[in-house]
């Protein structure tokens, strides 16, 4: 059996979806930044279909599939599951839904995820919704989540934060350079965060769009500076 990337190279994959020319929004942000919470609001108000990569992987574990144990071990370690597996699950879910507007939550988590998705499906996101939240707040939320998730313990949470900084932030930077990132301050109460989300999804005139893009760019400068400082301090702790 070939890999999904090999299948894409042979032109065997991605075609059904591509023909439907779906709208894709990637939803990114650290663990506990509120991606799932806000996706539920977007679904309710704007008719998108929500596909959470983490939920699809957890369902795969429960289904008792051959990849189940490998996925479970990786999630317990806060690691990122190989793109092969996650992309197949996402593609299947998109095809089976019969819908054409998707919020893809928690994906792409690293450069491998991103490049493989674009290669396999031949599709790119319309934009990337990025929920920015300080670690202390995300940690508090995850420790209070109470959904029985195996990875909501302090040891795995710290690993997930590190993977976010080292592997997921570069993906956000990639799309930022293409002008596709819409950054949201996610440290506020749910309703306030959703008000900012709405401003992105509502149709606007060109002047407002221009203003939103400039504000997003300014926020992203600040964000990248903070990430660099954090990575340097992590390196200093290691030495
Ligand atoms: N703005 C908010 N203020 C306070 N609590 C919030 C806010 N948004 C979400 N929460 C709560 O924080 C927890 C994590 O939220 P959620 O599951 O939406 O995050 P997530 O980014 O999808 O997390 P993960 O990446 O780990 O799946 C939940 O218990 C949720 O109810
Ligand atoms: N693209 C993805 C998305 C998720 N995972 C794994 C690793 C995560 O820690 C875990 C939980 O995801 P969440 O529900 O927090 O979005 O699932 C992955 O490997 N690749």
TrEMBL record:
Q: Which residues bind a ribonucleoside 5'-phosphate?
A: 58, 79-81, 106-109, 149, 160
Q: Give the binding site residues for CMP.
A: 113
- In the record's cofactor note, how is the cofactor described as bound? Binds 1 Mg(2+) ion per monomer.
Q: Can you cite a GO biological process for this protein?
A: 'de novo' pyrimidine nucleobase biosynthetic process
- Residue positions annotated to bind ATP are 32-37, 145, 188
- Reaction catalysed? dCMP + ATP = dCDP + ADP; CMP + ATP = CDP + ADP; UMP + ATP = UDP + ADP
- What cofactor does this one take? Mg(2+)
Note one Pfam family from the annotation: ADK
UniProt KW keywords? ATP-binding, Cytoplasm, Kinase, Nucleotide-binding, Nucleus, Pyrimidine biosynthesis, Transferase
Q: What is its main location?
A: cytoplasm
From the UniProt record, which GO molecular function terms apply?
ATP binding; CMP kinase activity; dCMP kinase activity; UMP kinase activity
The organism's place on the tree of life at top rank: Eukaryota
- Give a yes or no for keyword Kinase in this entry: yes
Taken from the UniProt entry, a GO cellular component term is: cytoplasm
Report the locations given in the UniProt record.
Answer: Cytoplasm; Nucleus
- Does the keyword Cytoplasm belong to this entry? yes
Q: What is its EC number?
A: 2.7.4.14
What the protein does comes down to: Catalyzes the phosphorylation of pyrimidine nucleoside monophosphates at the expense of ATP. Plays an important role in de novo pyrimidine nucleotide biosynthesis. Has preference for UMP and CMP as phosphate acceptors.
What does the similarity note say? Belongs to the adenylate kinase family. UMP-CMP kinase subfamily.
Q: How does it assemble?
A: Monomer.
Q: What is known of its domains?
A: Consists of three domains, a large central CORE domain and two small peripheral domains, NMPbind and LID, which undergo movements during catalysis. The LID domain closes over the site of phosphoryl transfer upon ATP binding. Assembling and dissambling the active center during each catalytic cycle provides an effective means to prevent ATP hydrolysis.
Name under which the protein is recorded: UMP-CMP kinase
Question: From which lineage does this chain's organism come?
Answer: Eukaryota, Viridiplantae, Streptophyta, Embryophyta, Tracheophyta
